[in-house]
Sequence to fold (433 residues):
Amino acid sequence: MTRHLSWLASVLMILLPGTPATANVGLSPIYANEASNWPLETFAANGLFRQIARYQRGHPQAVVIASGHYTLERLASQLDERALSRSGTQWTLHFPLVIAPGAQLTLDGARLYIDGENGGCLVNRGTLIISHSQIDSSGNQYSGFIHGWGGSRTQIDRSTLTGLGRPDYRAHGLSVARHRYQGTSGAPSLSIQQSEFVNLYRGLEAEPGSHVTLTEVTISQSREQGLVLSGAHAQLTQLRIDGSNGHGIRAEGEGKLTLEELVLSTNKGAGLLIENFHGPLQGRNLASEGNREYGIQIKGGRDASAHLEELVLINNGSDGLRLDGSTLLTVSDAKINGNHRYGISLDGQQDKVRASLTALELHHNRLAALHTLGEGHVQIEGTSLRHHSNRGQYLAGNISARESRLLPQLLQARPVDIPFTDAQPRAQLASRP
Fold:
């Protein structure tokens, strides 16, 4: 009993904010299902204990940087090599490593392998800076990961991350979130520039309240989705995502999203999926090409708005652009060509669709240029149309019967208002003589 209380006291001293630490860095026990140990409890409950048991002797422990600024060299001088080892120029982290509030770990020009199979991971509550470095893991269901809690700052510059992440909750590769025990504490922030992520389970995941900035980043061959934003505030610039096993980008929840100069290609889901997103969405110079599903799909989103300009949506397996729901959509200057179903599909079966489309090139989409279902209203100005074949249609769905009347107007420069509905027109009752 005395030993257990001693362990618990050390956890409270090192892991909880605002508590003086007995040492700058040291080993601390990990307890599953202990509220006092919440920075690691999530991962311990997900199987970290079992992985650690294969390697560590005795009760599972984590390395905790309680205060101060550390490099791997300085850490190694205070730790046993069973926690952090070095072979030539490569370091290997075998234990979970927690950066406490106020502490900082800097990896500059480092090569680090996170030994997830034995419990290695990086959990940030302070500041983590990765610059000109290579971070690797095994790329399987036991891979190590990097996670930032509320109040943390993670900065990655000119670095490569490979093989991180696994299916376990909040262990998907590189992620940021606020824990339920943190209440309304500071948001986690993540800033990445001129870096490359390869074969992560998810290239990046940000939960509600997170602040994310990506500039000149490439995410390729993600084992699930490329990038997942759930209620985050994100600014993505010069981002390339290709070869993901799911959607290139999925954004949902209440947030703010700015996209500029993106290339989303050959992903096995949609290039960009916006689902039940509430908040402003601005996108410019977006290319979504060769994805298995939609180029861009926007679903749900009551009281939301999306403004997209300079789009290139080409050769996607379903529609180039699909809108399902009540998001107010504005599109200008879009080339939507060669998609395997419709160029643009507007589905108002659940909620009324509203869209304004300007300066469109809709060429050679397999089924039709524009498709409508349910109820909605679209305004179109300035359209170039080409059939996919002699049997192709320009208009499909519940506006197909009006093609001969609408087509001459669509090909003119002036705006054309097109209301649409699935409801059948009511027959006029004959008046009695």
Remarks:
- Residues 1-23, 427-433 have pLDDT under 50 and may be disordered.
- The helical segments are 2-15, 38-53, 72-76, 403-410.
